[in-house]
Specification:
By secondary structure, the protein is an all-alpha fold. It folds into two domains: about 475 residues, Sodium/glucose cotransporter (Up-down Bundle), CATH 1.20.1730; about 40 residues, no CATH class. About 65% of the residues lie in helices and about 0% in strands. It is built from 26 helices and two strands. The protein has a two-stranded antiparallel sheet with strand order 1-2. It starts with 6 loop residues before the first helix and ends with a helix.
Amino acid sequence: MEHQFSVADWAVFVSILVISACIGIYHALTGGKQKTTKEFLMGNREMSCLPVAVSILVSFQSAILILGAPAEMYTKGTQYFLYVFGQMWAVVMATILFVPLFYPLKMTSMYQYLEMRYNSRAARLTGTIINNLSMLIYTGIASFAPSTALQAVSGFPQWASFIIIGCICTFYTFMGGLKAVIWVDVFQALIMVAGILAIVIRATLDVGGFDRVWEINSKWNRIDFWNFDPDPTVRHTFWALVVGGMINWTGTYGASQSSIQRFSALSSLNEARKAVMMNIVGVFIMITMSCVAGVSVFAYYAVKGCDPLANNDIKNSNQIIPYFVSEMLGFPGIPGLFIAGLFCGALSTLSSNLSSMVAVTYEDMIKPCIKPSRPEIVRMRITKLLVLIYGVLGILVTFLFRNLKGTVLQASLSFMGAAGGALNGLIMLGAFFPWANSKGAIVGTITAYVATMWISIGKYTVVGVKETLPSPVYNCSVYMDDVTIATTNVTMTTMSTYMYNTSGLLANYSMFISNPVTTTANSVIPEQTGLDSFYSLSYLWYSTFGMLITFVVGLLVSFITGPTKPEDVNPDLMIPIFDRLFWFCLPKKVLKFLRCGVDYETDNTADNDSGITETTFKSFNSVTRVDSEDTSHQSKELQLLSHKYMES
């Protein structure tokens, strides 16, 4: 495929990337000019609600979604759309459960919570290390997505794209810190929405409207939603998409460093709740548009009679949308706008990861080693050096994903689900179970991470990725002389009926309706045995599987080594889950019993901006003193907490 970019495309593409870089320069020259670690890492905790909400959204809904969701719908049908409801419920659960727990603590690194809860620095460092490993992996996948798209429409080499993405992201994060990251996210979100909306409108209109799109997808057996099979090895079911998706994304929106770092940069607890809850609308819009793009583009190529993947016009399914853009949206500047949107999606995710890794590394690993006498400028230099180091590491990791198989969507959900299950389990073990101790938390988390990563890697290297649905090929040039097309697992009959019709797509579609193609998808999957059966667990259950391992192993080790007494646990570091979710239907006596001996007399869900109790203040004080005796920066944090506490 060689649809070369025009000069206008390159101009639009480069301009948007330059604007992103300029936003970083602007925030380096305005406000506090990023002279303190508090401003660089937390935006002085004075950010506005709407941009923070958008930043949270695009941190997780990136180029992977724009390429991966349409490719998923195109190659495997519509069932994936149910995932939107799992994510929307996850946003609600995160707002109810995690925002009231984490916002009052005013943490720079979420893993400060682990030291406060378990009274263990080792537990804190366990979370930090796994977080950084998973962020680097996600960085590699997120960079791969737009690189493969740009290669498809312009022939631009992937390795050069990797370097461009890494350098631009590192530059504006280095210059403007969290403020730049958040405002670049807002700008990039607009470009992403514009790009995907253009695809939906053009593909739908060319086919003849959404009713025709739905009809064509139905003819090709792609309309499938209600699979209630309870088997966890079935790739997509209602339970995996909705229930598994909710469990996975609840921790992502409520208990991940990227999310906590952003809503903690707001001025009040209510603002933090609003920022997270706004993602319900954003998630629905982004996922719905991406899914509609997938079915619309499939309908277009079904009417045309040739799947570009089967015709070897593209190398992998992740290039289907870019191919369509170059073919049907070839107006000067439009392909450039779309590819820039993909790059923006990658940049938003990478900058979020970069900011998160720098924050936890500095706060959890570097800061305790800095002498109190060191001036703030030294701390800033160390922080910015970390940005450069992680920027280079991100570029290097990206090269490991050059030969990624399957959709980038499945790859990201697989590997992030593996890490997310362990990290979410580490947080939830402490927040839900008062008996958990530091030994149980560490052993359970490491066990879960190793097990889920083993499965996810085995899925790709041993089992592989299976394509099972038929695709239209009756007008493909490489198959015009074939009667049986084994390479696409589709048996064709009456091939002579489907010679290329020059009168257009609708005439082609009329031929298809009057002379339907007989297709047989090779959907028979060989029986799995041994490790293959173990690896066949649906990638949507990886996070849930990891959390269950953390809970079981963590509690088992805790009880063996001596469980924590519930009355000794700080209630402000726990989540009264039954009180939060079932307060309206369970009697008070039952709720009190379900608290497992923890005294929640002071509930940190109270509608005040601080939510800080005396016990929490003392706990934070002790942890920060362990980190450092820094009187120039840390004492300001403690003074702020003290002031908030006295006000409340």
